[in-house]
Write a structure and sequence with these properties.
Radius of gyration: 31 Å
Largest sheet: none
Strand content: under 5%
Structural class: mainly alpha
Length: 135
């Protein structure tokens, strides 16, 4: 699922104008975003033909925050170029931190015995050497 130059020209007005020297054109970035959406790969897994994955990700993130991606996908559907609607919700349980009290863990009550200072004086244990019994 890649856009051609002719398809890109039909949606180009909704994209921001590129200024200065840029390494990746808006068409390349759009094709990379569509590739990730279609294949569900990680950004780091983006093939090299799309350019640097970090550059693509940063531009996609900026477009997402500015509402450009919503306009692009609306225009893609309006022009009947792409018939998808990208919606994603992700929740990873490894990032949801729960306080130990919320997990049913026992509460700490005062200092641990190992934290108490050792009393001065003779040791509290005695070594008693024993001879093994003879058979």
């Amino acid at each position: 699922m890649e856009l051609t130059e002719a398809q890109y020209e039909r949606i180009a007005p909704v994209l921001p104008v590129q200024r200065g020297t840029v390494r990746l054109s808006n068409l390349q970035v759009l094709n990379a975003i569509l590739y990730v959406a279609e294949h569900g790969c990680k950004w780091r897994g983006l093939p090299e033909r799309f350019g640097n994955w970090h550059t693509v990700y940063m531009r996609m993130n900026r477009w997402s925050k500015n509402g450009v991606l919503d306009r692009v996908f609306t225009q893609l559907q309006r022009e009947r170029i792409v018939r998808i609607k990208v919606e994603a919700v992700s929740l990873d349980s490894t990032i949801v931190k729960v306080h130990p009290d919320g997990t049913g863990a026992l509460k700490k009550r005062g200092p641990r015995p190992s934290d108490a200072p050792a009393p001065a004086g003779p040791p509290s244990f005695i070594w008693l050497p024993r001879m093994p019994a003879r058979p």
